[in-house]
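LAB NOTEBOOK - FOLDING QUEUE
OPERATOR: T.R.
BATCH SIZE: 2
PURPOSE: Compare the predicted C-alpha cell outputs for two unrelated chains run back to back under identical settings.
PRIORITY: normal
REVIEWER: second-year student, initials M.K.

ITEM 1
FIELD SEQUENCE / FIELD STRUCTURE:
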Amino acid sequence: MKKRNCFIGQSGGPTTAINASLAGIIAKCIETQEFEHVYGMINGIKGLIEHKYMDLLDIFKTEENINHLKHSPAMYLGSCRYKLPTYQEDPQSYESLFRTFEELEITDFYYIGGNDSMDTVAKLSTYAATIQSPIRFIGIPKTIDNDLMGTDHTPGFGSAAKYVATSMLEIAYDSSIYKLNAVTIVEIMGRNAGWLTAASALARTQYNEAPDLIYLPEVPFNKESFLNDIREVFKKKRSVIIAVSEGIRDENGEFLDSDSKYAKRDAFGHILHSGTGKVLETMVYQEFKCKVRSIELNVLQRCAMHIASQVDLDESFEIGRCAVETSMAGKTGVMMVFNRVNNYPYEISCDSKDVSSIANLEQRIPIHWINEAHNDITQELYDYLFPLIQGEVTISYENGIPQYANINHLKND
C-alpha cells in the first residue's frame, strides 16, 4: 500500500495552543502508520513557496517530545502575514506549489490559522479541484480573537481568555490598596469582536466585582454614557476598573484611536490599534481629575503558557487529530469546527464545514449577549465563556523559567 505524505503549516498570530494542534496532527499521523513523511512548512505558505520546510517525523518520534511540543506556546513552524493571491493574479505560485506537492507525493495538506489562513485553504482546494488533484486540503482553526465563523469557539481563545481574566483579577487586587479615587482602563485585543474583552468578566469572584464596566466593539461607544457610567460606579466605590476592546467605535463607526499618531495597518489592511486606552485615559482625567491609568495587554495575552487552559490545550490537540481523520476519510476544502453539545456538564464534538463558507467572515458577539446599557455582558455569555478556561496546565521548568520547544530552526535563513 502506498504511503501518505503531508504538509502542515501555521499562519497568522501565535497562540498558547496552536502547537497543540500541530502536535495532534503529528501524533495521529504516527498512530495511523500510513504516513511516510510529515513535512512542516517554515513560515507558512510563504515559506513553502520559497521551498522552506522540514520533516517533522525526524524530530517528533516519541510521545514525550510530542507532549513537549503540545506544552510550548507560539508557533513551532513559524508564521507569515501573506495573503495568497488568486490563481488568476499569480499562476506561478500555484504551479510552483503543486510541483512541490507532486515531487514529494503529497496526499494531505493541513493549515492551522485564522480567517486569512482559511482563505488560503479555500483557494488551494479550489485550484486543486480545477486540475483534478487528489490532495486533501484541511483548515484547522486558531485565533485568540474567537472570531472565526462556523465553530463554537476557536483553539487558543480559552487560554487567552484565562490570561485576561487572571490579569484583570490581579489588577483589581493591585488597585484595591489605596484610599483614593482612581480609574484603571485595561485595553484588550479585539478588532471587531469583543470575545476576549468579555472574558474579563470571568475575573469576578466573591471578593472582586471588577471589571466594573466592559465596552465591546459590537455596540457603538458613546462618550457621555461612558463618563456617566464611571460617575455611577464612583457613587459605590473609589476604584473603577474598566475593560475595553481595542476596536471600539463611536456612533459614526470611527475607531476611537483612528486619529492616534500610533495608528497603522497590517499587510491585510487591518488597523493595528494602539491607543484606545490612552484616548480614554485622557478623556477620564479631563472629566474627573483623579488618578487614571491605562494598561494595554497587547501580545501578553497570546502566548502565556504558564496560565493556559487545560480544556483549550486538550481540545486543540484533539482537533488536530480529527483533521487527519477527516482528510483520510476523503474530505477536502473544509475547516475543522467545534460543536457545543452542552454547557453544564461541558461537552463538545468535532466536525468539519466547507471552508469557502467560512473564510473572510467574522463571528461577533450576539447583541443579546450584551446588556442593554452596553457596558457589561449577560449571564448567557458568561455561561458560554466559563467552561473554556477550566483546568491548569503543568509545564516543565529549567533554571526557574519554563522550558519550551527548541525553535532554533526559525532563526536560520
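ITEM 2
FIELD SEQUENCE / FIELD STRUCTURE:
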Amino acid sequence: MSTMNRPDFAISGVGSTAGGQFHRVELEGVSRVSGDLDCYSFSMNGMATVKGGVRSEERFKASGKLTVEGSVHAAVMELEGQMKVRGGVSCDVYRMNGFAKVYGDCSAQQCDVRGGMTVGGVLHADRLEIYLDGPVRAEVIRCRELRMKQGGGGSLKRFLQSILPTSWQAQLRADRIEGDDLELKETTAALVRGRRVTIGAGSVIDRVEYESELIVHPDAIVRNRAKIRG
C-alpha cells in the first residue's frame, strides 16, 4: 500500500500505540510506541520512546528527547534536542542541533552536526560539516569532503553542559578519518588519510597519509606523515 493511502496517527498529551503503517505520524507530549513505525513523515515534539525502528519515506523531525530502540531510515532527518538510536541511521540529509547517540553506523549524503554526537560504528557522508559546539566521536569517519567550523556556543553550549559530564570538550575524536578533501581542527585521531588534508590548531594526529597536499598548523601535532600514490 502506498504511504499516501494510509491513515494518519497522532498523539497529543500522553499516549501510546503498538506501531504500524501510517501516512503522517505526529507525536506531541509524552509518547510511547511499542513496535516499528513505517510512514510517509514522522514528527515528534516532547518526549518519545519507540520500541522498534522508524522508516519515514520523506521527513523525520524530532524536537525534545527521543529514544529509538531500532534503526532510523528517512530522506531528510532533523533533530533539535536529544536523541538516542540503538540501531543505525540512514538518510539523504541529516541536520542536528543538540546531542545524538547512534549505536550503529550513521550514513548520509549531506550531514550537518551542530552540538555533540557519538557514533558507535562508521560515520559516512558525502559532505560532512561539523560545528564545534560539543564532542563528536566515531570509530571511523569516511567522507568525500569534511569541513570543521567554529561553533556558536550560547544556548546550545548551555544545553550540552546540562546533559554531558563536566569533562566534555568541543573536539572531534576518531580512530580513522578518510576522505578526499579534509579540513580538521581540534581533532584527535590515530590515522587521517586523504587527497588534500589540512590539520588545524589543537589537533593531535598519530599518522597522516595524503596524496597531493598537506597543510599542518603550527599549533597541531602530527607524529608521522607520508605522501602516498592515489
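REVIEWER COMMENT (ITEM 2): The chain is about 5% helix and 70% strand.
FOLLOW-UP: none requested
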